Each structure stands twice: as C-alpha cells, then as structure tokens.
Amino acid sequence: xxxxxxxxxxxxxxxxxxxxxxxxxxxxxxxxxxxxxxxxxxxxxxxxxxxxxxxxxxxxxxxxxxxxxxxxxxxxxxxxxxxxxxxxxxxxxxxxxxxxxxxxxxxxxxxxxxxxxxxxxxxxxxxxxxxxxxxxxxxxxxxxxxxxxxxxxxxxxxxxxxxxxxxxxxxxxxxxxxxxxxxxxxxxxxxxxxxxxxxxxxxxxxxxxxxxxxxxxxxxxxxxxxxxxxxxxxxxxxxxxxxxxxxxxxxxxxxxxxxxxxxxxxxxxxxxxxxxxxxxxxxxxxxxxxxxxxxxxxxxxxxxxxxxxxxxxxxxxxxxxxxxxxxxxxxxxxxxxxxxxxxxxxxxxxxxxxxxxxxxxxxxxxxxxxxxxxxxxxxxxxxxxxxxxxxxxxxxxxxxxxxxxxxxxxxxxxxxxxxxxxxxxxxxxxxxxxxxxxxxxxxxxxxxxxxxxxxxxxxxxxxxxxxxxxxxxxxxxxxxxxxxxxxxxxxxxxxxxxxxxxxxxxxxxxxxxxxxxxxxxxxxxxxxxxxxxxxxxxxxxxxxxxxxxxxxxxxxxxxxxxxxxxxxxxxxxxxxxxxxxx
Amino acid sequence: xxxxxxxxxxxxxxxxxxxxxxxxxxxxxxxxxxxxxxxxxxxxxxxxxxxxxxxxxxxxxxxxxxxxxxxxxxxxxxxxxxxxxxxxxxxxxxxxxxxxxxxxxxxxxxxxxxxxxxxxxxxxxxxxxxxxxxxxxxxxxxxxxxxxxxxxxxxxxxxxxxxxxxxxxxxxxxxxxxxxxxxxxxxxxxxxxxxxxxxxxxxxxxxxxxxxxxxxxxxxxxxxxxxxxxxxxxxxxxxxxxxxxxxxxxxxxxxxxxxxxxxxxxxxxxxxxxxxxxxxxxxxxxxxxxxxxxxxxxxxxxxxxxxxxxxxxxxxxxxx
Lengths: 582, 320
Fold this sequence. Notes:
The complex is a heterodimer.
Chain A lengths: L2 H13 L4 E4 L6 E5 L4 H11 L6 E9 L14 E9 L4 E9 L5 E3 L8 H12 L2 E3 L36 H11 L18 E5 L11 E7 L2 E8 L7 H5 L8 H5 L7 H15 L5 H29 L5 H20 L8 E2 L2 E2 L7 H24 L2 H7 L7 H6 L5 H4 L7 H4 L20 H24 L18 H4 L3 H12 L7 E4 L2 E2 L4 E8 L7 E5 L2 H6 L1 H5 L4 H11 L3 H5 L1
Parallel strand pairs in A: 2-5, 6-7
Antiparallel strand pairs in A: 1-2, 3-4, 4-5, 8-9, 9-10, 11-12, 13-15, 14-15, 15-16
Chain B lengths: L1 H35 L15 H11 L10 H18 L17 H23 L2 H32 L4 H6 L6 H4 L1 H14 L11 H4 L9 H26 L11 H22 L5 H31 L2
GO molecular function, one term (chain A): NADH dehydrogenase (ubiquinone) activity
Membrane topology (chain A): Peripheral membrane protein
Protein name (chain A): NADH-quinone oxidoreductase subunit C/D
C-alpha cells in the first residue's frame, strides 16, 4: 500500500466518501476534494487527531477556475481554495481542495487552527476577492488598500496597456497617502497603557535596516517593542499573474527574480514542477550541473546574509570581504552561464548550454580557496563577543512555534529539527550526494546564524562531489518537450520537429494537469504549483516562498525585545522582499 | 606688543590647523577604512584622492540650507554649533608643545570635562528640535550614554591628577619626564579611552546614530553645513580625545630629541586617531542597555578600585 493509499483509506474511514473525493495529479501528492462545509473538521483532524499528524500548514492559495476547460466537471466550481499540509512523521504532503461557487464566494477561516493562515487568507482575499468568514483582520496585503479589483481573477487585466493611462491627480495623491497612514485602532492596538503613552515608530519602506522596501510599524514603550505590524507588498510585481501570460519557456527569467539572491535555484523549483507535468526525465549530467549551480547560489546567498547580518549589528567590514568572495562565485557563474545574479540558465528538460572548457579548474580553485575564508569569518563574526551578546537568546522560538507558523529551512533547523528537503524528499539527484544537515538547538538569532554558516561548508562539499563525479552525457533531455529541443534531433525526429516548430511559433505546450515541486531553497522551502490547461502558458502559477511566513511571524517573536534587537531578528531571518511579495 | 601678537597667532594657528585636520580626517577615515576593508576608497580626485576633502566641503556648503517646517527653528540651528564650539574651546588647554598652548589653566582638566559635558546638549537639543521620532530616540540614547560615561571619565583621570598633583595639563606632561603615566595608570588609561569613544559616540558606541536602527539618529533631519557641523564636531572630538590621551598618559610632547616636541605630539595623536578608525572597521555595536550595564556595572567599580589602589600606594610611598 502506498502512503497515498494509506492516507486515503484513513480519511475515508473517518469522513466517508460523501465528504472526500480523491483526485489524481501529475506530482502524486495525495489530493482530495473536500466538501466546503467539512473542510475545518478535516483539517483539524489532520492537524491534531490523526495518529501521524500534519502539523505544518505549508501553503494556502486559490485558483480562479472560471476559464478552465474542466471547471464544469465534478466538482463544479468557480473558484478553488487549496491547502497544502506537511506531515513530518509520514514525510508526506497532502493537498486539500474546496470548490467555491459564485462571483465573490466566501469560505471559513483557518486562523484559529493555524495562526499562519492569517496572511495566506489575506492574500487570497486580496488576489481573488474570496472572503474568509471569521478572519480577525481581512484586509488587502500585497496590493495598495486603494486598489480596484482583485488581480488574480481572470477578468483583471494583466497588462498596463489594458487598463488605460495611469494618472495621479492631486486628490488621488491625498487619498493614496491617507491610505498609507497607520491607524493603530484598525489593528486593535492601544495608544496608551495605564501608565504610559505608546510611540508608534514607522520603519520603512525606505530604511537602512530593512534590506528592501519593507515597512514595519512598531508600537513602542520607550525602546521596548509592545507590538509590530509588518506592512508588505511594496515589492509586489505580480509574478504569479505574469505566469498566466508568459509561455512556459519565457516564464523562466521571471522566476530568477523571486528570491533574487537564489539565482538559478528558482529556475529549478519552477522546472521541477513543469518537468513533472510534461513527464520529462532529465539526464544525469543535467542533474549534477543543476545541483552544482544551485549550491553555488546557496553559498552566494548565505554570504550576502552573513555580511549584512554583521552590518546590521554595526560591524562594517565583513560585508566587504564576503562580497569579494561572492564575486568569485559570480566569476564562475559568469563563465558557465554568461549571467550573474539572474542567469536564467536552466531550461525545460536541461540547461542552456554545456559546461564550458576549463570550468573544473575554476571550481577547484574556489574549493581550495573558500574554507579558510570561512574560518576567518568565523573568528571575525561568530566568535565576536559583542556579536554574541547581540544575538544569543534573542528572537527565540521553539520547534512547536516554528512549525505552527510555517517556518522552514535554516530557521526550522535552528530549533533542533533535522529536516532538509534535499535529504528527506530528494530532487534532482541529491540522494547521490554525501552531506550533513547542520542543526542547532536554541532557535535564537545566533543559532540561525550557526546553521547557515555550517550550510556553506556542506554546500562546498556537494560542489566538490559534483566536480569529482560530473557524469558525461547530453546537457538536455531528448524528450521532445525539452525546450528548445536538442538540435541534432530537430531534423531527424518527427516529434521533436513538431515540438520545435510549436515552441518557436507559440511556445511549448505542456500536457493538462497540476504539479507541485518543493525544494530546499536558500531561505527555506520554495514551491511552484503549476496548473496546465493544455496550453502554451500556465493556467495558474502559484509560488510558495519561505520568506512570506517568516515575515508573518515577526510580531510574534519580536514582542518584548528592543528596537536594536529587532534588527538582529530581521537579520537572522534572512528574507528578501522579492521573496515575500513575489 | 609682540607678545600679544604672538598669542593671537597661536590661537588663529591652532584654530586653522584643527579645522583642517578635521576636514583631512574625512579623507583619512575613508581611505583607511577602505584599506582595512579590501577596497579602494576615494582615489580619483587629485593625488591619492585628496581633493575629495575639497569636494565634500564644497558640497556641504552649497547644499540647500533646509530647516524642516515641523522643527523648532532656533534650537535646531543652535544645536550643531554647540558641539563644535565646546570641542574647540576644549583645545584651549591642550599643550601641543612647550611653547604652543593657548592657556595653561590651573584647572585645565576640569575645564575639559566641563566642556565635554556641554557637548551633550548638542545631541539632546538637536534630536529634540528635529521633532522626529528617530532623532528623539537617538537623542535620548545619546544623553544617557554620555552622561553615564562622563561619570567615570572624570574619575578615571583622577589617578593621573594624584600622581602629578595638578589639574594643569602642562604640569601633568612635565611630570612624565621619567616615565609615561600609562605605565602607572594602565587601568585609568583604558577606561578613559573607552569613555572617550563613548563621548565621541564612535563605533562601537555609535548608539545615538546607529544607522541600521535609527537611520541617522539625532541628526537625521540635518543637512548641508548644519550636518557638516556635527560631522566636523565628531572629527574634532576624536582629535581632542586623542590629544588628551597623549597629554595625560603618553607624555605629551616628550620624546627623543631628534624630532621637535610638536612632531612627537602629532605622531602620538595620529596613532590614536587611527586606532579610532580601526575600531570602527572591526567591532559591532552593542545594544543600548548592554552599553549602560557595561558602564555602570563594570567600568565604574573598576574606576573606583583604581582610584582607591592609586591613592593607597601614593599614601604608602609618601608616608614619613
């Protein structure tokens, strides 16, 4: 009995098939349609009562089904809300869907089951206009409060040219500015306590400590944080909406810019989902090349985090040394891909080119060079007593809290859980590599730093194994869906010829279905949930990014600390705004 | 007549040199930081990028003289002047060389401590008058930091006063003919220097301006030459603390005869200024409450102990 069948039996026994209907998907994640009225009991059962529970709300999003070819077939729906849960015990995802009818339907809120559902539900409301009954603060989250319409609905224009010219007259400036004014009462915050008046400090969206256009409003008593309200969306570019009008191939460069420090790692998350949909098996050489490039970007991203974290705490120099090292990584990336931060280099079914001559020499040089630098940084930053005083015991959360709030990646491993997607659910051939999962126990800012620091050493180990065991073979799958297909097949193989013609004239056509990938990205788990309607562009592309739930947790973990500690907490969180807002 | 002229020449000369040093330090700091951080720093304008000083100064002068509409105008204007004036006045008592000193007050050290206390007003008033929350937080941090560190800044110097038996800096320097006071007062020196860093609010004690937390702290709203005054005030402050340290603990102008006394003074002072910059390149910033705890719980008892031991030894040695 497969895990999916086991899960299906368990749920059917508990709830019966009037409530649940199983659905087959390309990614083989156990998927069930749940009757709208029963979703809360089912979720509560999965979270609390099931013998092997699903404690992590991994993702929550919606689809506008109204233009989809099969939206009339069972279950008939206009909108779908999708829940992804993860069970650590089973090492398994589950996907639950509810079908909603009507133009502006509503569903029940999950916020009392999972606090992390709050932002996800606000996002669904913002993007689709679906209301969640009982949500404590259902308000737009990514779009401006003054926005008209809900962008991910199919009738909402995707291009500025479809919307008429943009005009900003004086009254509109006033309205927009008024909407940005923070009104504590709206958030249920008090202006006074019994013995003090609180100060509301607006940090950002332009502030040297926020690493991007993030706005945080602090409720302060002196310098102590009573509460914090993060305001996100200033970096929102509608990456999910863009997916719906780009071809499967031309969407790749947009993914580069989601976690903009992760480079090709974003390509990988997207392509794993697409390749599952298209049924493409990539050659070994491609897998190893992809792993190597991803690990280079992991190191590059961690170096940026390392340097800026130290800088947030007032240490000015490390960031310069670390950017110099990052530059060495970019030299290699440039030699291999021609690009630097956003190489847009992976392709459906392979990579853009084969590795250039002499790549191995550059990689070997870096492997020889980097460890002693890391040692130096360890002495400079991690062993510095002021650095320790600023980070040890600050921003603590326990493993239970981390799971409750949807924390993934190094932030989760700093609480003592040895869970790395590269080991637990290996993708792209990670099962063939030897590496350790660094963990730490206390879940404070310092431990999150320890985990990331150790990860760089492990990434280097993986790169070394890639260098030693790089397989020979093609750099692209000979599957006819590979984009663009192998040149030598285009004139020989009729399937490839047809697909090549389609690719060039329309863009690749990916078979109907839906699939999700999940990778261990630089900041946590990154997923692309791609829905194909058998067309040249995705019907819906959902991007689950790690920084989004991490930022949601900020008020919870920063209460009671000071303004200076907030910077430690933000720094140790390692987010980028593009990853939060998409 | 010629004596009065000479007197005025010394004053004008010192003022001229000091202001130039403060401006020159902009370049020194940026180049030294760059050196320690594996980068180039400003190296384009003029030889070794030296003309950056001119460019920076001109830029500051020609910036719009902006006072935010919500600020308290008069206080806002006075605040930056306070720090420059109080630091410049402190220089009056410094013996740069046997013949170069504006005034040898018999309460020289007390005058210096008094003037450096006045510097606090600059930060408090500037932050308060800006009417900005970040400035206010910076000003409050600055005020409490400087007031607490002044307590044992003064106390840490008393060891030197006991040894030389005088508050006059000239007498103190001359008392170091045989050996520098740093040998007799190592603890006093370390504590005074730490307090000096806190007094000039330089990294690691730049908590009033902590750019990653408070944007620019108490001077967030300042621009143009008003900001320039804070800027110059900071560099003058570094120079002042360095020269006082040299005069009190490192024998002032004293040194082997192959160099003139003034050169010895300048070399020693430059060393400390570079140390200030090195600190900025290497250390992170403690949290505000940690700084206060460090001051009151560690440095203050240590200072008192130092005072007690020094006094005890002097009494023991001097008993008939």
